[in-house]
Amino acid sequence: MAKVGQEQETTDCFYWARPSSVTSLSYWTDPILNLLGRPTASPPILFPLDVPHTSNRRASQPPRGLAGKATLRMATLRSLKIKASTCRRAVRELRSYEEEVEKEAAKTAAMKERGADPYDLKQQENVLAESRMMVPDCNKRLEPTLADLKATLAELKESGENGAEIGDAESAITEVETLFKQTEDQL
Asked: Residue 156 in contact with residue 83, Cβ under 8 Å?
């Protein structure tokens, strides 16, 4: 390994490192001046880009001190919590778009009653159409999210896990299925 300030023979690529802070003007101007052959305030320090990997562990091995099964279980509980939150966020988004459709429909009806300018009315109808397009899009995104959450929950229950995350996921599933039933009843 080369010492600081020396070039390493086996490495062709180097990057600049400065002892000064990034915010100083010399940090940005010194490498440019050095390339132009002008003297700089401090000599550049060269570091090799391809530093050899020093660890003997493989990337596929779990971190030291954790058993493989414990790592897998933690990841599953964590992923279950993330997927439940994703479902809840999608439900909130869907409800928000449904409220927006109702609000924009009322605004469009009021504009028609008042006899608003045809251009303004057309623009408002376009806004309403865009809001209506988002509801099926949210439903389409919510279905695979729900299926993924159910699969993760089933996998976790199969392994015999219990905890707050499981109850949270079950309540999220119930909330989404209730929402789907309400949507089907309206159709």
From this structure: no
